[in-house]
Design a protein that fits this description.
By secondary structure, this protein is α/β, with parallel strands linked by helices. The chain has one domain: 3-Layer(aba) Sandwich (Rossmann fold). The chain has helices spanning 32-42, 46-53, 57-69, 86-92, 105-110, 148-158, 176-197, 202-213, 217-226; strands at residues 17-19, 23-25, 76-80, 97-102, 118-120, 133-139, 159-170, 230-237, 242-248. The strands form two sheets. A seven-stranded mixed beta sheet has the order 5-4-3-6-7-9-8, sandwiched between helices. A two-stranded antiparallel sheet has the order 1-2. It is globular, with a radius of gyration of 17 Å. It starts with 16 loop residues before the first strand and ends with a strand.
């Protein structure tokens, strides 16, 4: 495992797209350097912005992800795309050993005070041996990969046989009228609110666009199965705004 302090900053070779006066954002082709640069830009106020934009639901989503993994005290868990490691702390409350991994060094540094091991890691080329973890999770990060099948394949590779996977990700609201209201919020209200609370509002325009382009619950379940996971299921949270997909390696 590579300590974050020993790894050079990512994102220096390719500039992210920008909105004048608003900071940088990634494009929907999700070039890794753009994504890393964008998340570096939101790191300082990332946690508070998420809480505001989700109306406090982010805490529930973290708890439900922990419950979905059915963690035991002796488990070693990979929290991929861990960001500031707030999700890792929630997972560690189970007594398991949690490794927080993220491609954005700015995000990991923003969570430096959280007492879990942190590793700079590319989700498409994980720096871990085969069969390293009893469980793995990725929350709101799979959608940001430019090769989702490869990312899922890497998660399966580093899991032990029978290891548990949980993917917490934005999804499609299940009720038509609610879905319409939600999409209006995504494309209009969310960027406006982000302007008031985020250190990089342009990133939240990308967030809205990437959610709209993301597959629904069944579509993601099919991708997880295609990566070789069994017993794939999902649970809708907050009316389907978010879903937690589970499976076994």
């Amino acid at each position: 495992m590579t300590p974050t302090s020993d790894v050079p900053d990512a994102g220096s070779e390719r500039p992210a797209h920008s909105v004048p006066g608003a900071g940088s954002r990634a494009s929907l082709d999700k070039q890794p350097e753009e994504v890393a640069s964008m998340f570096d830009g939101v790191a300082r106020r990332y946690d508070i912005t998420n809480t505001v934009l989700s109306f406090g639901q982010d805490r529930l989503w973290r708890k439900e992800t922990r419950k979905a993994l059915k963690l035991r005290p002796k488990d070693v868990v990979l929290d991929l795309a861990a960001g500031t490691a707030v999700s890792s702390v929630e997972l560690a409350s189970s007594g398991a050993t949690v490794v927080a991994a993220d491609f954005s060094l700015g995000m990991l540094r923003a969570g430096a005070d959280r007492a879990v091991p942190k590793v700079a890691a590319d989700a498409l080329h994980l720096p871990f041996a085969d069969d390293s973890f009893d469980a793995a999770t990725i929350s709101f990060g799979l959608r940001n990969l430019n090769d989702v099948p490869l990312g899922l394949s890497e998660l399966r590779r580093v899991l032990k046989l029978g290891g548990r996977l949980a993917v917490c990700e934005f999804s499609t609201p299940t009720l038509g009228p609610f879905r319409t209201v939600y999409m209006e919020y995504l494309m209009k209200a969310l960027p406006s609110v982000a302007t008031a609370v985020s250190s990089n509002p342009a990133a939240y325009v990308y967030l809205a666009e990437s959610i709209r382009a993301w597959p629904d619950q069944e579509g993601l379940a099919d991708q997880i199965r295609a990566a070789g996971f069994s017993d794939v299921a999902y649970k809708n949270l907050t009316g389907g705004i978010v879903a937690v997909h589970t499976g076994r390696a």
